[in-house]
Amino acid sequence: MTPERLRLERMRGLAVQWASVAGLMVFVLPGCGQESPAQTSPTVSVSRTPEGTAIAGATQVVFTAAVSDASGGALTVSWDLGDGQKASGASVVHVYATAGVFPVAVTASNSSGGVTTVGSSITVGSLSGRWRLSEGGERFYEHGFDITQTASELSGRPFSEPDQGCLGDLQGRVASPRTLRFEFTGCDGNVVRIDGTALDDLRSIPGTYTHPDGPPQAMVLSRE
User: Fold this and answer.
1) Same structural domain for residues 61 and 141?
2) Which of 104, 105, 137, 197 could serve as 80's disulfide partner, Cβ 3.0–4.6 Å?
């Protein structure tokens, strides 16, 4: 084979190799620009009842998640209630056992892998402590009550100033959302009943003082 013929064969081989490479590049490069189908995440808003401070061991708190999703697929809703308890579903009911401030998170996920988490918090308090009775010592002999709350049970003792030591211990209960009733024996030997509903901040309890000798009288207990 002449030198000129050998040179031509080599050039033809290189052209074939470059054509193969170019064909491979045309085949592969479009794949690099491909994207996975678009994912959408659910939209979530949270509400709860009652508003304000819950009472430990008594208030049934209802958390509700309003969830919408553009994909129209199946949705899963889960809750972290902040006190070690978890729940699932669009609406959950929970009673906190102890006082404190608890972070609450709800997570909604859809069938395409979209996830949305919304956080909030709830304050939980107790009725334990000293409560002053409005107009105590004037309209009422008792000046107030030293109350101990254990779960939904109330115990303690009325006090007066000066205290003659004739007042009996109090016993009662607190119920959801923030209503309470307790009774004690007065110095005259009659059983007196206190009914009330704590306000949102658990600082005051308007209600009634009922002695068997007369009609219920309006009163307010104020946290000291």
Assistant:
1) no
2) 105
